[in-house]
Structures are given as structure tokens and as C-alpha cells.
Amino acid sequence: MAREILFNAFAMNCVGHQSPGLWRHPDDRTTDYTSLAYWADLARLLERGKFDALFLADVLGAYDVYGGTPDAALRGGVQVPVNDPMMLVSAMALVTDHLGFGVTANLSYEPPYVFARRLSTLDHLTKGRIGWNIVTGYLDSAARGMGESRQRGHDDRYDVADEFLAVVYKLWQESWDDDAVAADKARGVYADPALVHRVTHRGAHYDVDAIHLAEPSPQRTPVLFQAGSSSKGRDFAARHAECVFVSGPSAKVIAPRVAAIRAAALPYGRGREAIKIFSMMTVIIGVTEAEAQTKLVAQRALASPEGGLVLMSGWTGVDFSQFDLDDEVRHVENDAGRTAMDNITRADPGRTWTVREVAQHVALGGIGPLIVGTPSQVADALEAWVDETDVDGFNLAFTIMPGSFADIVDYLVPELQRRGRYKRAYREGSLRHKLFQDGPRLKVPHPAVRRDKIGIKQEQDAETVTA
Amino acid sequence: MAREILFNAFAMNCVGHQSPGLWRHPDDRTTDYTSLAYWADLARLLERGKFDALFLADVLGAYDVYGGTPDAALRGGVQVPVNDPMMLVSAMALVTDHLGFGVTANLSYEPPYVFARRLSTLDHLTKGRIGWNIVTGYLDSAARGMGESRQRGHDDRYDVADEFLAVVYKLWQESWDDDAVAADKARGVYADPALVHRVTHRGAHYDVDAIHLAEPSPQRTPVLFQAGSSSKGRDFAARHAECVFVSGPSAKVIAPRVAAIRAAALPYGRGREAIKIFSMMTVIIGVTEAEAQTKLVAQRALASPEGGLVLMSGWTGVDFSQFDLDDEVRHVENDAGRTAMDNITRADPGRTWTVREVAQHVALGGIGPLIVGTPSQVADALEAWVDETDVDGFNLAFTIMPGSFADIVDYLVPELQRRGRYKRAYREGSLRHKLFQDGPRLKVPHPAVRRDKIGIKQEQDAETVTA
């Protein structure tokens, strides 16, 4: 039987997200992003639709590649201003029981000792529903906020990331044994000190000599998400990521990337079921084709091409303000730029794209593809995409909030349920349980888990070890 | 007419707080501290009692001065494990409308650019109900978690704190003008880039060159709390703090400290109304005297003297495990130690204290005084304390959670209301409004506000400027 398709909702703690200009749409509520009621409503909606998780993107800088200033981003409300995503989680967790929460955190600017406690706290408060999108950053503007003239080189960032993970893994997995907390009122023993271990780490980038401050949370290590698409990024994902985001313009383009990620994970002992892959996707749904097209026309009229280029400039490092809108898009020479551009243009290699067309595309859902149609048509397209690419599900961007997700919940989810391609009820347990039918803890051969360490008892029946 | 008395509830994201051992009490729920329902219930209770704020303490290390290891702290659940307090705020804000939230954050381990956004986010989400307890840290164990062999010297820490504040003030107050956000759907302008300013700071400890990522929140700068009692700490408070915590064993000891803080603030143009002073206090209330005494006996039987010494050792830097419980307490030579000890012993300078007596005292509410009695007796004591010391209110520690606060809400608050010494309704507006009847923004002569900067329009009618 065909696998159930997983759904992440993709959003950000800002006006809009990947649909610049659409905050002007009469049905859009994203200008309420500073309100807790807005986020609580979204969480309830997504749980009603049995979404696996709400995924919160983040940047720590303004998009200022376009024109060399943040002016266009500010004017258009293009992911700036942008608030801290982690501060939203506990309110949304309070009004839901099952929805997972993926939070993006840039490890370049967080001390691992403090960061590990923050994530442990969220894993406790959500009862094991937290995921972390491991990001190393791509905006020089963020580095300047931290007193550096620019961010580290791309490959260096992954070396720092490897060491950062080594530290937080030790804090999460090895500092407190499973049975360290007795909470024994009769004996007056809260924790057994012999079962709490100091983590010592002396490395190139980080030094730690302390116990983890948080007792073991349901998942210990949050579910690890990653989106790297470079070769270094892919190897990083192959070793660490439990969920990987991919983005591409067609199933044909995505399929070999998915295969490459799965192949890269195999030498680390991580088979087909070890990594869930989510494809970026935007859908506009109407009960009839005509209604869907009417929505598309209305949204396209408000989508901001300049906003699209602000985003593309940030993602690629290429200042698109220097081109005429009618210019043909040329090849972009740097890694990030090539990837972002390929994601749009490779769907049809024969076609020529103008800057305007790229801008319009990005302004409705970012670099992922856009599917417009009836619930049945969209379900057909998603099923085919999954079957052709071997992805596990979708990271669904919105164009209108909450309208895009409400349409998915009210129309697309029931259609997929009828087809046996979407869960009819949440599984019990942690986010890791829900995604992998196994949990709540990581197991060998994931590098977070070292079988030679005491305290990780549930892992000791596992087969292989990698460090 | 006598002033209304302000109430802060003092708690921490851990088992117990300042009543080690009492997590064993049958009515205590603090072992549920990892649950959101626990915190939501507490917030609702405090709002029912019209508390001004819930104040969350924090430490970033384990108490390991006692015996030179964290073993006793772990065994007794003495403020370790301890989770991140900021992660609790949005859930509690969702279920309340008026309660303020004071969060402790150690600036030594937070980059100001990231920290400023985090607090702005909380100020947005709470609609202006956030306060920040500025802490520079006192535990070497926290420094070791960050890869330093020990924390900075005491005075150095205040120099770093001054620079940290200079940076976050610029980000909060000066980066976005009041009218920068247009959110104008017709013109398609979210923010006016001409009214958003890059903050540049080059200092001894911090460099920043970036716009603040968050648009102006209701209060811009959170309400600033501080608890420094050293001379450097007092000067810091005199310049920056809007709320100051003091702790002492008697009104006689507290009164000159309060006068000294108010006197120190005057040269900075900050008069009697600029700083609210909260006195640490623990109360055990019974409907009858007998009931109060019964509660006291039951609680004292479960309070852990060793836990009290673990806390005292951490606060003073003196390892109390080296003494016999019957030893007389001698003079402590360092600043922090002298202050903590004075807070206990100076109530009655003639009296000799043994280590055991100190331990028992600290184990029921920390170094603040303990008042036990009927609602009327406790109200008498608090009124007298306020009138003799010129403090504005109390930072109320609990011994039993939620019992201590439930008794205050159900018995003490109505008694004080009858006497005209406690609000019958919350004031509308931000936490700053509620505390100062003025707000939501800071005004000159507070050093966060510079009248020569554009954009802080509501300040321009003020009288004096200090920078």
C-alpha cells in the first residue's frame, strides 16, 4: 500500500513569508504576527488538519543584497521585521496535543550550553514535540549584527556545525542517565548525582565543562531537520538529519537529489527509513478549477515582484536590482545562487526565463513549485510527486494566511484521506514517534548516540555503532 | 492616603525554588515544573489575585560550592535541574490579560543583538507585559559551561553590563522610529526605510552594525529589574533599574538600603517615583493562628537544611559543608557572602546563629524574612514593613506551590483590599503603565532614552536629558 504523505506547514514569525506583497490581500492576517491569538489559531487549525508539524523559518539579518540596502525588504515587509520563533512555541503547545513544532535556530550565534537547555525546555513543555532546523546562516547582515564583518565561509560553517552538534549531543544524550531522576519523596532524593555526568569538551570552537542543566526530556535530542543542498550540506544531512527539506521545480529534478541524500546516508548505516524528506510546495486550492484560477489571479495581482527579487538576492548573493526586468536570467556562479536558480528554471531546460518571470514565481511561494487546482487535482499532483521522487511529504508554504492552510485542512486533507494517503488520526507519542513510528529517543547508528556511554539503556539492543 | 502595595510572585523553572525539600510536601506541585498546565494554572491564579508580575529567577549553572560538587544540589533538587524561563512566557501570556512577566537573563552569555530581538518578541506577544531582570551571574559553574574557567570579576561584570545595555538600548529605542511601520495596504508600504536606522556600536566587548530586527514593541525597552546590592550594583541600579529587589531580615535593616538606592538615583534625575523597590518576603498564612502554626511545623519538618546550605554556599561563595551544624556562624569576608549573611543575622545583632539555624532559615523562603500568621496579622506586618522602609511592595517567595500563592490570593489580598492597600482592579495598559501609571515607553532622564535621537516623539516634552 502506498505510504501516507507527511505535511509540514511552513511559516515564519513575520509579515508574510514566501509571498511578498500578499499581506495586502483582504483575507491575509499575517500583519497580526505579533499577536499570540494569531499563532494559537494557526496551531489549532493545523492540528485539526493533522499536520505533522508547524515549521518556523528564521533569519537573523535583513535581506540587504538587493540594492545593497535593506530598504526594499523593509518597504515590502519581506521577512523583516522578523521576531524570534522560539518564543511562540509554548503558547501553541498549550492549545494543541499532537502538532509538532520545528524551530529554526542558527547555531553560529548561540552558545551550545545555553542553546541545549533552551531546546530541552521546549521538548519538556511540548511533551516531546520539538524539532530543530539546523541552520548555519546565509546572510552577511546577520554576521554584522554579531560584530563580524561577514559570515564564515560556507565549508567552515559546517565544521563549526559539526563541533556544535558534538557538544549538544553530549549535553542532551550523555549528561543525565535515564534513571538519574528519582523524584523520590520518601527518600528525599530528586536526582542521583552518580548518574549525572559532567560534559567536558575542548574543541577548536567550543569549550564546555558542565553538567547539562535540564533533566532528560522526552526526546532528549529534538528531531533534527536540515536543508543543506551543497555537497558539504548533503554529507552533513546524511550523518545528522532525520528530516531533510528539498526544493526543486519538478519531480524529475527532485528525484535524483532525493536518491543522492538517501545514498549518502547509507554508508553511515542510515537506511531508507532513517530520513524523512520533505519537498517544498505551494498549493492554491479551489472547489472548482475556476475558483482556483480566480484565487490565483487575485493573489498574483498582489504578489510583489520586487519582494521576490529581494528574497532571490538574499538566497543567491546576486543583486537582482542591477538587471532589467526583461533581462534573461543568466547562470549564477556561486553554489547557493546556482541551486536557487536551478530550482526555478530546470523544470523546463529549454525555456528562457526573464528576471520578471523569476520574480513573479518567487513571489508566490518561493522557489518551490506552485500547484493550482481542485482538491482532486492537487491530490493527484502531490501523489504523483511523491511516487516519482521518493520524498515522504511536503513542506507547504502559504500564500495567504490562514487561507492557504484552511483550504488544505478543509479540502485537500479529506481528499488524501479518502485515497488512503493521509493519516486519519495522529499516532500517540513524541514527534519522533509520529514521524518514524519509533521513539522517543534517537538510536544507533545516529551519531548523537554512543552505545559505549552509560545511561542510554534503551539503545543497548541495537546492532551497530558509529561515532 | 497610604500607597497600594505591589506584589510580585517569585518562582523559577525548576523543582521548588527557595524552599529546598518542600517538593516532598503532599500539597506541592513543583515537580510538575516541566508541564505547561502547571504554569498556565499559576498564571491564572496570580491574575485572579491581581499580582503585578510573576518573576522568574534563573541560574545558568549548578550550585556546586557546597562540598565542591553539584551532588548535594542534584540530590535535593536544589535549583538544578533548571529549565529556561523565557520559554514559559507565551503560554502564560495566552491565558492572562494583565499579569506581567519578569524574566531573568544573564547578559554575560547572550549576544545583545539576538537577545534584544528575543525580548522585543516577548514584549510584542505579551502586549507590553514583559520585564527583564538584569543579571551578571554569580556562579563559576555557569562560566565553565561557557568554556571559561571562572566568571569575570564582580566589577568587570558591571562594566560589561553597562556596555551590553548601551547596545540593547540603541536597538530597542533608536533603530525604528515610532512611525516607521505604516502597514499601508493601499500604498504597499510595510515600513518606511528612511525611518529605520542602523545601529552601529564599536566597544570593548561588543560590536554591532545592523538594524534591530523587531519593529517597535509596546514598551520598546522591557521594564528593567535589578537586584544588585554591592556599591557597583547600587550605582548600576540607580542609573538603569525601574524596579529593584532588596532583601533583608528586618525593616530596620532594609530602610537605610532603600534610602540609599533612592538617594543614589537622584543625581541621575530619577526621583522617588522612578524606582519601585520590592522587598523579598515569605509568608505562611492560616485562617487562624493555630492553622498557620500547623502549616509552619509541617513545612519545617520537610524543609531541607542541607538544601539551605547548598543555596547559601552558592550565594556566598563559602563552602558551608566544612562547618559543623552546631558551629556559630562567623563573619564572611567577601561582598556577596557578607550581604547574604547580614540579611539573616542582622535582624537581632545580639543573637548568635548556628549553621543549623541559618540552614533552617534559608530552607523556608531563602534569605528574606518569614511571616507566619492570620491574614490580618500578615497584612499588619506587610503594612508596617512598607511604612517603615519606604519599599513599594514585595517579591513573594513561596514555600509550597501553588499553596503559598493560593493563600495570598484567597486571604491576604482581600484583607489588604479592605484596608485600601491593594488594587481592586488592574490598570489598563502595559506593565510599565501598571507599575508607574505612565508608559508604555521609558522617558528621559532614563539613560535608554536620548532626546537628540529622532523618532522617540513622545519624549520630546520632557525636561532634562542625560546620556
Report the order of strands and helices of chain A.
Answer: EHEHHEHEHHEEEEEHEHEHHHHEHEHH
* Total beta strand runs of chain A: 13
Q: Write the CATH homologous superfamily of chain A.
A: Luciferase-like domain
Tell me the structural class of chain A: alpha/beta
Q: Output the strand order for the largest sheet of chain A.
A: 1-2-3-4-9-10-11-13
The residue fraction in helices of chain A comes out at: 25-40%
Mean pLDDT over the full residue set of chain A: 91
The Rg value of chain A, from CA coordinates, equals 22 Å
What count of domains describes the coordinates of chain A?
1
The CA-CA distance between the termini of chain A, in Å, is: 36 Å
Quaternary organisation of the protein chains: homodimer
Concise synopsis of the structure shown:
With 467 residues, chain A is an alpha/beta fold. The first copy, chain A, has a single domain (6-298, 367-466), classed as Luciferase-like domain (TIM Barrel, Alpha-Beta Barrel). Chain A has 15 helices and 13 strands.
Describe the model:
The first copy, chain A, is globular, with a radius of gyration of 22 Å. In chain A, the strands form 3 sheets. An 8-stranded parallel barrel of chain A has the order 1-2-3-4-9-10-11-13, surrounded by 5 helices. A two-stranded antiparallel sheet of chain A has the order 5-6. In chain A, strands 7-8 form a two-stranded antiparallel ribbon. With 467 residues, chain A is α/β, with parallel strands linked by helices. Chain A has one domain: Luciferase-like domain (TIM Barrel, Alpha-Beta Barrel). In chain A, helix 13 packs across helix 14. In chain A, strand 9, helix 7 and strand 10 form a beta-alpha-beta unit. Chains A and B meet through helix 1, helix 2, helix 3, helix 4 and helix 5 of A and helix 1, helix 2, helix 3, helix 4 and helix 5 of B.
